Amino acid sequence: MNTVLDDTTEQIIDLAAQVGRTLQAKGWFLSTAESCTGGGVSQAITEIAGSSEWFDCGFVTYSNASKTELLDIPEAEIAQHGTVSEEIAAAMAEGALANSNADVTVSTTGIAGPGGAVPGKPVGTVCFGWSVGHRTHTERLVFSGDRRAVREQTVIHALQGLLRFLNAA
After folding, report:
1. CB-CB contact of 127 with 161 (8 Å)
2. Is the pTM above the cut of 0.90?
3. Is residue 1 part of a domain?
4. Which CATH number covers residue 102?
């Protein structure tokens, strides 16, 4: 077994550890709502020993039906904005907050590829949401690379954004 971590994995684990220290200092719990990352953010968080002290749960809502059933996002809202939108990223983050014991949440929804692109939303399009209390922030980015690269960049940006969001809260 190769125990040497590649730079990306090391960066993700370092970010997750920073998130953990920040959450622990605030006495807060985190929940995630993930689509395109398939639980990658939650996996990064739970790589950190002791994460049970600051991580509540993760929702992997890959299908639209699961977004509706687990995060209370109305089907009409998904139809109106599309799954990959800042509106749905916000709704995912807010739904995770409402359906968990977390104080703060992060969400990801995007098109990792190689297929799935639609007009105005190329492969690599990812929307993020971060929510605490009654405040939600969203972002839309377009990453390059293959499916793995898009997903890794998404996890990194989700954690970096979470740190910025936590430090501003």
Report:
1. no
2. yes
3. no
4. 3.90.950.20
